[in-house]
Amino acid sequence: MKTPFLAAGSALSGAALASALFLAWPALTSDADDASPSAIAPATPEGVVAIDPAQASRAGIHAVTLIPAQTSAARHGLARALDVSALSAIQSEIVSARAALTASQEDDARQRALAAADQSASTKAVESAHAQALADRARLTAAMQRVGLEYGPGLARLSSAALGDLVRAVAAGRASLIRLDFADGAAPDTGVARIGEGAAAMPVRLLGPAAAADTRLQSAGSLAILYGALARELGTGRVLPASMAQMQGKESGVIVPRAALLRYRGGLWVYRAEPGGGWRRVELTDARAQADGWFVRDGPNNGLKPGDRVAADGAAVLLSIERGGEPAGEDD
Q1: 184 to each of 222, 238, 243, how far by Cα in Å?
Q2: Would you kindly state where each structural domain of the chain is located, as residue ranges?
Q3: What is the pLDDT of residues 292-308, one digit of tens each?
Q4: pLDDT digits (tens, 9 = 90+) for 185-243
Q5: Gap between the Cα atoms of 194 and 70, Å rounded
Q6: From the CB of residue 134, how many other CB atoms can be counted at a distance below 10 Å?
Q7: Which residues contact 22 (CB under 8 A, 6 or more apart)?
Q8: What is the DSSP letter of 7?
Q9: Global pTM?
Q10: What element of type H or E holds 294?
Q11: CATH number of the structural domain 11-72+250-322
């Protein structure tokens, strides 16, 4: 499954330098006056750059060999911030209902005391005060149940004070109530997930299942509260990648250095050395950021395996050559 939200420390920051290298390419490859880009990058299929090792070395393109790697198996999904306007209204209703219940309970007790002391309170007044207290209690119970019915049992376990603190923190930009949906089913009721990518990823503790399935993804979800810098950037409806380590299992693959990665046409790419010479641009459809690079698991659709050689410290040069010297733009 392609993950469009992938980001990387892209080598495209050197696109201007790559263009300059391409314009000066004849000097790198030949002293002949008639050297031209077509002599360096002849007509080849899209995604393939046909240059020999000597030319690549003179252009500063170096290859690294991918070695086998393993990482803990993980579940992958999406996290998005929820609108807490309804939760704020529910919290206000809870506060109002609790205040009304306190007042009606005091009135009920007072009427009973008066009736017991000297019969100065009528039976009707006592019954009316008691009925009002019961009605206010039912109103408070219904307001508290709305949290679980509309958001989920995990959030319903929070106290009224904690709900109020959450609403105020979200309004101030210090927190975000998020929903996580995983591709392989519902997340467990408890556990720790990671939101975001790379060094900016933040851990969150799951509160419990969401109240309803996602209508678009048709998946059950879990709720969590995110605090910190990422919460300030996570506006309502924004989607970020989410992952959660599984208790058992390992995944095999390779670690791709960050210097070898390219962000191009909405995807993540590397240039892989071809057995017969030259370089082929390969898209990474299932890559995850880690401390020492990006992990790409084994699979027929992932395009890389241990022993492959990928271009590092020069991937942007290869992309510029492939594009005929034209730097990649924002729309690409």
Answers
A1: 13, 21, 12
A2: 11-72+250-322, 85-150, 162-235
A3: 788 887 766 667 888 89
A4: 666 677 888 887 766 778 888 888 888 877 776 677 889 998 877 887 777 667 888 87
A5: 19
A6: 13
A7: 37, 317, 320, 321, 324, 325
A8: -
A9: 0.53
A10: strand 293-297
A11: 2.40.420.20
Residue 29 has which token pair?
């490859």
Residues 37 and 61: their CA atoms lie apart, in Å, by 17
Q: What is the CATH number of domain 85-150?
A: 1.10.287
Q: Yes or no: say if 174 and 180 are a contact pair by the CB < 8 Å rule.
A: no
Counting Cβ atoms within 10 Å, is residue 258 exposed (0-12), middle (13-18) or buried (19+)? middle
Structure-token pair, residue 225:
């509260």
**E-only strand ranges, 121-238:** 175-182, 192-195, 202-209, 221-227
DSSP of 219-264, one letter per residue? --EEEEEEESHHHHH--BT-EEEEEEEEEEEEEEEEEEPGGG-EEE
